[in-house]
Amino acid sequence: MIPPIVSPETFERVKARWRTNITRAQTKHAHILTGIIFCGVCGAPMTLTGGRYPKYQCSRWKNNRDTQYVSAGAKTADKRVIGYVKNIILNEPDFEKIAENYNKEHALSDMALKSKVEAITAELAEVNSGIDNAVSAILKGILSAKLEEEVKRLELRKKKLNEDLLNLSQSTGRRITTEEVRGIYTRYEEMLNSDVTEQRALVLDLIERVEVFPEGFMNIAPK
Ligand SMILES: [Zn+2]
User: Kind and range of the H or E element at 212?
Assistant: First the structure.
């Protein structure tokens, strides 16, 4: 029922947060699900009411009263999603499998990268032979403004292609080890047991969308 795989993007985000230790003051007063909770009947985002017992409420109903009234107690809804996240984190600690899946996904994107590199390399060879031809023409005494312009254009293209190659070579080789996965899950556990801000950050990392239906039914979609 609960997917054991967390997306590569999520891993990257968690790793990034580790490195930079971003403070998330802007989420301090928000409830955990603000922004990812939607009305299951009409699809409108749900907004938080104030008061002693805050509720997530269908914003379309609130603004227009032209649809069914759908709401969920904020405390209850937050708790249920946190419980769901807790299950993901605590019940599926097959770190080796998770790392394996992550690396498999990356192998695919590495293949896409490889074909890009091949395309650039081929174009670079063409550009180089174009430059060679132009230079030998110039050496033979054929000098024209058009030829000079062409050499300039080819040199610029060559520079751009070399830059692209460098960028691509820097984005390969991103792999995750079983130990790193274990570390991320340890961090997830810390976030789970931390304050609302950290819990919200964790929920945003793992949960795509929450839908509320009448009579307290909720659909939680993981990333
Ligand atoms: Zn609605």
Answer: strand 207-212
CA of 37 to the centre of ligand 1 (A): 11
Is 100 in the same domain as 82? no
Residues 50 and 101 in one domain: no
Each residue of 133-162: pLDDT tens digit?
888 888 888 778 888 888 899 999 999 999
Torsion of CA 59, 64, 66, 71, to 10 degrees: 30
How far is ligand 1, taken at its centre, from the CA of residue 48, in Å?
Answer: 13
Same domain? For 74 and 149 the reply is no
The predicted model scores a pTM of 0.61
The residues whose Cβ lies within 5 A of ligand 1, an ion, are 39, 41-42, 44, 58, 60, 67, 70
Q: What's the rounded Cα separation, in Å, for the pair 15 and 210?
A: 25
What spacing in Å lies between the alpha carbon of 185 and ligand 1's midpoint? Answer: 35
The reply to whether 73 and 115 lie within a common domain is no
Indicate whether 100 and 57 sit together in one domain.
no
CA–centroid distance, 1 to ligand 1, in Å, is 27
